[in-house]
Amino acid sequence: MTGPRRAEAGTGAGQVGIVLVSHSAAVAESVAELARGLAAGGPVVPVAAAGGTPDGGLGTSAERIAAAAREVDRGAGVALLVDLGSAVLTVRALLEDDELPSGSRLVDAPFVEGAVAAVVAASAGAPLAEVESAAAEAYGYRKS
Amino acid sequence: MVAAAAAVEREAQWLTELDSPIGDADHGSNLLRGFTAVRAALDAQDPAPAGPGAVLQLAGRTLISTVGGASGPLYGTLLRRTGKELGDAAEVSDEELRAALDAGVAAVAGLGGAAPGDKTMLDALVPGVAALGTSYRAAADAAEAGARATVPLQARKGRASYLGERSVGHQDPGATSSALLLGALADAADGAP
């Protein structure tokens, strides 16, 4: 990453927001907690979990995703990381319809590793394109 | 739309049964929730939506926000894109509807990245919409045949694709519900004055 603007880190203003979309509320919350924990050491960017359906079931809620994106939007863009199937399709449909804050991006990355990379990069002040590439790079890390 | 909602209500149980061996057993209940919400949204519109395009856009938006599974954004996109193509005309011709549905199906294919033969709703929608040039009933029959033809296919998209060869031998729930909806369209066309 080139020249993170550490002076601005953690103020929230001008930082990239992160939304984690999972079929499970527990997974989304837990991954958010993990990413915040691993990014700690300084102020951490806004991260919102959008997991499960409003009635507490497994699935994807367009409303939860849109609300989470608005919640973390600080004007520098919002990176959305998703798990499977309907989570991917719902975010794509919302983006196509301009129902997410301007500068929202669906990030093509593994969910857990990508979330950690995105939150660490964004907390260091990286702009959206760098947050996105940091998360996508997580695909390149082979485990065996 | 009312005919479509009624068809979903009638067949929700069957769709969920189809979704049990190769899916997560929620296709019928998800669509039921979605179409019940569509009916409520249409009832709540005062004044009523101006034309078919507005109805379809409202229905599509409602499906995306209420279904909770992949069928929400897929059917939502189908209806919304079709509605946008129709615009705000108070009445549309059969030919305009056919062209709009063509665009809607293309949008679904773009959203999900699937093609005919992948054992998805496209296996019913693509032949169904292609047969619209003949008649609404021909479209429903072609979609029905397309849905049945998904039985020997191996799923290449969605949760069923994780099953690999074990997805063979089951009729695809999404193709089945698509055939059902085109059947509802044919019923509505038959009943039209």
From TrEMBL, chain A:
<dbReference type="GO" id="GO:0047324">
    <property type="term" value="F:phosphoenolpyruvate-glycerone phosphotransferase activity"/>
</dbReference>
<dbReference type="Pfam" id="PF03610">
    <property type="entry name" value="EIIA-man"/>
</dbReference>
<dbReference type="GO" id="GO:0019563">
    <property type="term" value="P:glycerol catabolic process"/>
</dbReference>
<dbReference type="GO" id="GO:0009401">
    <property type="term" value="P:phosphoenolpyruvate-dependent sugar phosphotransferase system"/>
</dbReference>
<keyword id="KW-0808">Transferase</keyword>
<dbReference type="GO" id="GO:0016020">
    <property type="term" value="C:membrane"/>
</dbReference>
<protein>
    <submittedName>
        <fullName>PTS fructose transporter subunit IIA</fullName>
    </submittedName>
</protein>
<dbReference type="InterPro" id="IPR004701">
    <property type="entry name" value="PTS_EIIA_man-typ"/>
</dbReference>
<feature type="domain" description="PTS EIIA type-4">
    <location>
        <begin position="15"/>
        <end position="144"/>
    </location>
</feature>
<dbReference type="InterPro" id="IPR039643">
    <property type="entry name" value="DhaM"/>
</dbReference>
<dbReference type="InterPro" id="IPR036662">
    <property type="entry name" value="PTS_EIIA_man-typ_sf"/>
</dbReference>
